[in-house]
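FIELD: query
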Amino acid sequence: MNSAEVAKLLGVSVSTIQRWVKQLNLPMERNERGHYFFKNEDIQLLKEIHEQLQNGVLLQDIAPIKAIKPARKGAVKPANTNIEMQELQEKLKEIEVSVHSKADSVVSYQLLQHRREIEELRQNIKDLSDLVEKLQTELTKMKTTSEEKPFVLADGKVKRKKKNIVSSFFSF
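FIELD: result
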């Protein structure tokens, strides 16, 4: 049975079953996904724990009978992996060197790009300052030529519009 089925059988939640297994260090087996699965003897043990808790015994005070179960088989390799570890460390060092050299080349490229951009900006600033100087000289030339020649009206006379007599009486 899985945890949900056992929990339903005992009338408790799945997390309660998991908590009992963890806190009491019960030697329960797990499937390939890491989920608990319970045999009949495991279910009987959990029923006894549930009865003890129903009778008022605290969970810390319960000392369950630990059934002898075969040890879980794992996929742990023997300790002859020293050579493999050294090879892994060497590969790791090679990769680190490769990453550092790549980072250095990227930084160098970016530096060159920034230098080009700075040179372009300097040239733009120089062009703008030359243009400002040119405009200032033209402006000073215009000021000096306008001061030398006075402003003169054509024939020295200003033509005025004549008012008719009727409009002069009614203008205020």
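FIELD: remark
The mean pLDDT is 80.
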